[in-house]
Write a structure and sequence with these properties.
By secondary structure, the chain is mostly helical. The chain has one domain: 2-Layer Sandwich (Potassium Channel Kv1.1, Chain A). Helices cover 40% and strands 8% of the residues. It contains six helices and three strands. Helix 3 runs antiparallel to helix 4, helix 3 crosses helix 5 and helix 5 runs antiparallel to helix 6. The longest helix has 14 residues. Belongs to the SKP1 family. Keywords: Ubl conjugation pathway. Pathway: Protein modification; protein ubiquitination.
Length: 155
Amino acid sequence: MAAPESGKGNNNGTTRMVTLISSDDVIFEVEEAAASLLRTVHRMMIEGGGGGDDITLPNMDGATLSKVIEYCINHAAPADGAAVDSWVLGIFDMEFLNVDQSMLFSLMTAAHHLDVKGLPEGGQHEANGLSISGASSGSPTPRHAGRADGDGRRS
């Protein structure tokens, strides 16, 4: 899986693909430009010497990896060298993070493990706005077992 000299494909003009395998054995064929936004995967591609091996991600389930790949495909530089429309990308980012709480935390964890630029910041921003059961949406205050509430009762 050595990088082509032009960075846009191999000698016959096709786009170079990277195979990512999730912990639940879901296989994804991803363009190298998108896969390279996963900096952990990018380092694995470089350290692996471009041998063409599949990259298994043992801590990443298929549903989460699919969402992360969707993010990377939309954030990768177009192969034709066209400029990325930041306004359109901003709308995509807002819609992308409109997921349930479980997926949001999975995405934040994935962003951390795979070192995806931009994804943790957006996910953290969304997570900060989550309401915890029994707390106001303005200032989530989780209750901990064995600690006193404001009225002195144990939670």
